[in-house]
Request: fold
Amino acid sequence: LILSSIVVSIYFMNAQDNSYYLTKAFELLSEGNVESAERHYSVYQKMTNQSDANFELILKEYKHSNMAINLPSGETFVMVFVEGGTFMMGCTHDQYGACYDPEKPAHSVTLSDYYIGETEVTQSLWRAVMGTSIYQQRNKAGAEFTRGVGDNYPMYFINHSEAEEFCGRLNSLLRGKIAEGYKFRLPTEAQWEYAA
Reply:
């Protein structure tokens, strides 16, 4: 009788643990913690040798949706989901010689899924992250004019190292607020061309 109750208790505990991992996977996914949700779901699958169609559907929809990002300052911007694939990068023969040498030869490139900003970095977003205005950037660049000023205009008069610093500051500002495993960086040339 005692041995029988121990076996029943262990079996019951394992059934609870299985349910725990699936429930926790749903909870983590609702919080935007995709990587941890997938880990918990993987444990659930290994323990039960089953899959859950609802979780997989929600995960797929979550992964394939745009992300609205909110900064602590209240500034908001959107990252657009780009489904990976293969494409010909560079200048192709049907462009009738309108190619520059660095664009040749066209070659096949395969990309994984990624997110890219819906728009270029706006002056408002730059100001919220970097603390400088278009006029300050113009003065740093030694330019004499501006081409467009306003919150929704793209930021310009920035160099590559400032763009890298912007991404680093964005990651610091949003640490713990975006899904685990994600970070901001400049897109590669291939990602830029494919998204366009």
The chain has seven helices and five strands.
